[in-house]
Amino acid sequence: MQLIQSIRSNSTINSVTRLILNTSIKYLSNISKRWHVAGNIPLTINGIKFSMYSNCDDHKLNALYYNYAYIEKNDLLVFSSLLRDDDVVLDLGANTGIYTVLSSLSAKNVTVHSFEPHPQNLERLKRNISLNDLKKVTIVEKCVGNEQGKVKFSIPETNGISDTSSVSEDFSKGSYDDKIQWKKIEVEQTSLDSYIDRNNVHKINAIKIDVEGQELNVLKGARLLIAKFKPMILIECFINAENRQALKDFVVDNNYFVYVIVSEGLVLIDRNFTTYQGLNYLFLHDKMNSSFTTMKQLRELNQSNFPN
Q1: 212 pLDDT higher than 80
Q2: Which has more pLDDT, 271 or 3?
Q3: Is the pLDDT of residue 305 over 50?
Q4: Same domain, 215 and 75
Q5: Which is it for strands 111-115 and 206-209: parallel, antiparallel or unpaired?
Q6: Residue 63 resides in a domain
Q7: Which letter, b or e, does each residue of 177-207 get, where b requires 16 or more Cβ atoms within 10 Å of its Cβ?
Q8: pLDDT above 70: residue 146
Q9: Helices (H), the chain
């Protein structure tokens, strides 16, 4: 150890070595960004080990595996930290299933209803559920809105997986600045109120909503569910002049507190959605003990200080 310290303290050796290390790190980082992951990829989030499949096409897995900056990693940490034994979760816009898989493994006996209408995403979702041997996941091959029926749904012409497929063609096209060609397919749509009534779902603890521009329609179709169960809601929403008032009315009418998720933890914001122009918001019916809750505090929460 003393020999290493002696060598390391030599200014010339130290300078040359750190230059080599710094250059190597940058070089390897550039390579890894081009070397997309493929196969069954082992991941660990919030201490939970699981695997997800990629065919060099699931970009969030690249970020999570190589530990790049990835905006949704903090959301995954928080959402999984707040789930409890026997919870029932609705995963809307399940995509390839990372929330479905992580939620299922976050506590004992968690049930997940996973909604995904995109055919290629759906096949990948099924594969990831099987890969992790999940027995309490119900796959719903439908999109979610404010009413039942058939709707047109935009997907890439390449028939690959996609993270921005939507009922809103403009939303899908705008996400990639016309770099992707889109086509429309017909899919089934349901409202959450209709779904839980038809399927005798008697408990809902948490909902993740990632539906690419259809958030307000989802909330409209879940009025009874939300009033009855008061679930935690993680929602992706691009706040604008058109939907700000509607979201404010929703959280006020349903007595929700609004939080944003940052790398350090949860931050309480105003219900006008003016103090933070973010992307993902967490709606909680039970207020945290302070306006800022650290990630460590979230992990230490238990049933008594975060009641169902």
Answers
A1: no
A2: 271
A3: no
A4: yes
A5: unpaired
A6: no
A7: eeebebeeeebebbbbbbbbeeeebeebbbb
A8: yes
A9: 2-9, 11-34, 59-66, 71-81, 98-106, 119-131, 169-175, 192-198, 215-220, 223-229, 241-253, 295-300
| Per-residue pLDDT, 289 | 80
Other Cβ atoms closer than 10 A to 279? 14
The distance from CA 241 to its chain's CA centroid, rounded to whole angstroms, is: 24
Neighbours of 112 (CB within 10 A): 26
Nearest to 96 by CA among 143, 68, 59, 150: 59
Encode 220-258: b = buried (16+ Cβ within 10 Å), e = exposed. Answer: bbbbebbeebbbbbbbbbeeeeebeeebbebbeeeebbb
Q: How many CA atoms lie within 13 A of 262 on its CB side?
A: 12
**Containing structural domain, residue 17:** 1-34
What pLDDT is attached to residue 303? Answer: 39
- d(CA 90, CA 199) in angstroms, rounded, equals 13
55: tokens are: 């065919």
Structure tokens at 24: 């190597």
226: in domain:
yes
Of 239, 288, 233, the residue nearest 265 (C-alpha): 288
Within a domain: 123: yes
